[in-house]
Design goal:
By secondary structure, the protein is an alpha+beta fold. The chain has two domains: about 270 residues, 3-Layer(aba) Sandwich (Beta-lactamase), CATH 3.40.710; about 170 residues, Alpha-Beta Plaits, CATH 3.30.70. The chain is about 30% helix and about 20% strand. Helix 1 runs antiparallel to helix 10 and helix 3 packs across helix 6. It starts with 5 loop residues before the first helix and ends in a 5-residue tail after the last strand.
Length: about 500
């Protein structure tokens, strides 16, 4: 009979083998820049690490810190989502990846956020840096100081974008911690990292992170590439009641990096096993008053409250639940979904927290929508563009057929905040894992008489699955409508009768 620690030892060996196989395929120079780590998002327990404290170049992972600073400024009231920021000649001069902003143009804070997440836009990074720091150089100093306060002790920033700079260094461990802090400190904003596409001035920009669609349970967060670093990624994935954060630095290609991350997470999930360790993304009922402390640590056995100072860094902290709320607990907040046709505008709603009421058909003003996740990766940070080889025509044809069949979804309620809607869409998958397998979360906002509702949806499944899911929800007394997407239009096609 095997000892009690035989299974953990086995999966530790599997993780080591995954790393050895990956390193064997690299040149000596590539192997020297490789680093990886996988942690439990709630506890900080390290499930795997290889060269996790090696100095590496972050590339566009830098934008995770730029976004942290942006979210903090929003919570402090120094920025608002709708605030228009000027584009300087300095910002407009940045090389790809970029939005193509022009000097003298203005762009909203909200659009900057989505440009950083999806397009990884270097020009947008400079816009927000200048808005918060006066200059990009000063903002980089602010980034470094704040990063050290968060516990990223080996990280130094020299710009807001991740463009090449020999002095801009980090470690895989620090990037895992930063990913963890983004989730825990800003649960009300974290959903942006799983946005699949973003439209700016009529041009659609897809998310570079293909793991969002190819690896089940992934909800973010960022890719990066420059020649000096190789292909980098920080990934957050939730499965079987547990959320893991993985970091891979120094991939040879986007495809090989993604494949390596998949193998690491597969082994880490197997090693971690099942457990009620999901970090619920929900606003905090209070603002803690004690000082910041690094979060990456050995496993804890109880929910962790994130603490922030009162004066210096009043970021929105959150008390994290051990598990996502059961569907039954969400029932009082559910609203019947309006049976209308919606034209989707592919950006997120900036407004939230207003009192909700059931929206009636004919009184709906379509707003914006967060779609999570369906990626489109062509990371282009600096010197080249990240891309995967073209797929064979037969594979493309199969995907077109499959995509055509998976144009249905379900709407499970309307809520008074986007966060509550996102939680409901997450929770329903736990109760209907088969019917909703492969579906993607969408949170869409609609306005009625000055009030905003946020509709919780799961899209990207076949019609029989959508019908079956709704019937099961209706049997539980939950609101549910079957939806069908055609192009950019989503409409209600049925409300099945309970069984």
């Amino acid at each position: 009979m095997c000892g009690g620690d035989a299974v953990p030892r086995f999966w530790t060996g599997v993780l080591a083998l995954v790393v050895l196989v990956g390193l064997a395929a690299m040149t000596p120079a590539e192997a020297r820049r490789y680093a990886s780590i996988v942690i439990d998002a709630r506890t900080g327990e390290v499930l795997h690490e290889a060269h996790a404290d090696r100095w590496v170049y972050p590339a566009s992972l830098t934008k995770m810190m730029t976004l942290y600073m942006t979210f903090e400024a929003l919570e402090q009231g120094r920025l608002t989502m709708g605030q228009m920021l000027p584009v300087s000649a300095e910002a407009a001069s940045r090389p790809p990846s970029r939005l193509g902003l022009r000097a003298g143009q203005r762009i909203s804070v909200e659009d900057v956020i989505y440009a950083l997440v999806t397009r990884s836009a270097n020009d947008a990074a400079v816009v927000i840096a200048e808005a918060l720091g006066g200059s990009e150089a000063q903002f980089a100093r602010m980034m470094t100081e704040r990063a050290r306060g968060l516990g990223l002790r080996a990280t130094t920033f020299r710009n807001a974008s991740g463009l090449p700079n020999d002095a801009q260094r980090t470690t895989a461990r620090d990037m895992a911690l930063l990913g963890q802090r983004l989730q825990r400190d800003f649960p009300q904003h974290y959903h942006v990292f799983s946005t699949r596409r973003f439209v700016f001035q009529g041009t659609e920009h897809g998310n570079h992170n293909r793991l969002l669609a190819s690896y089940t349970g992934t909800d973010g967060i960022k890719t990066g590439f420059i020649r000096a670093s190789g292909f980098n990624v920080v990934t957050s994935t939730q499965r079987n009641g547990r959320r893991l954060i993985g970091v891979v630095i120094g991939g040879q290609t986007a495809a090989s990096r993604n494949a390596h991350m998949t193998r690491l997470l597969d082994a880490a999930f197997a090693r971690a096993g099942r457990g009620p360790t999901i970090m619920a993304v929900a606003p905090s009922p209070r603002r803690p008053t004690t000082a910041d402390a690094p979060v990456l640590q050995v496993a804890a056995s109880s929910p962790i409250a994130v603490n922030t100072p009162v004066v210096d860094t009043p970021a929105a902290a959150a008390t994290m639940a051990m598990a996502a709320s059961p569907l039954a607990e969400l029932t009082p907040r559910l609203r019947p979904a309006p049976a209308d046709t919606e034209t989707v505008q592919l950006v997120t709603a900036a407004t939230a927290g207003r009192a909700a009421s059931a929206a009636a058909p004919g009184q709906i003003t379509p707003l914006r929508v967060v779609i999570t996740p369906e990626p489109h990766e062509e990371e282009g940070s600096a010197e080249t563009v990240e891309s995967d080889p073209p797929l064979p025509a037969t594979v493309l044809a199969e995907r077109v057929i499959e995509d055509g069949m998976r144009t249905f979804g379900v709407q499970v309620g309307a809520f008074d905040t986007a966060v509550a809607a996102h939680r409901a869409a997450e929770s329903v998958l736990q109760h209907l894992p088969q019917a909703l397998a492969g579906s993607q979360i969408e949170v869409s906002a609609v306005e009625q008489n000055g009030r905003t509702l946020f509709r919780a949806r799961r899209m990207g499944i076949a019609e029989p699955n959508a019908q079956a899911a709704c019937r099961q929800l209706l049997d539980r007394g939950q609101a549910c409508f079957v939806l069908k997407r055609s192009g950019l239009e989503t409409r209600v096609v049925a409300q099945p009768s309970p069984t």
